[in-house]
Amino acid sequence: LKELWEHGNDQERQSLANMMVKMVEAKK
Prior knowledge:
Layout: H1 2-7, H2 10-26
């Protein structure tokens, strides 16, 4: 996952950030 983040483009990075936000909010 870290390699994806480092080598991904801005769009992929934005998608990962959105996924993380959704996972965090789902835990509430």
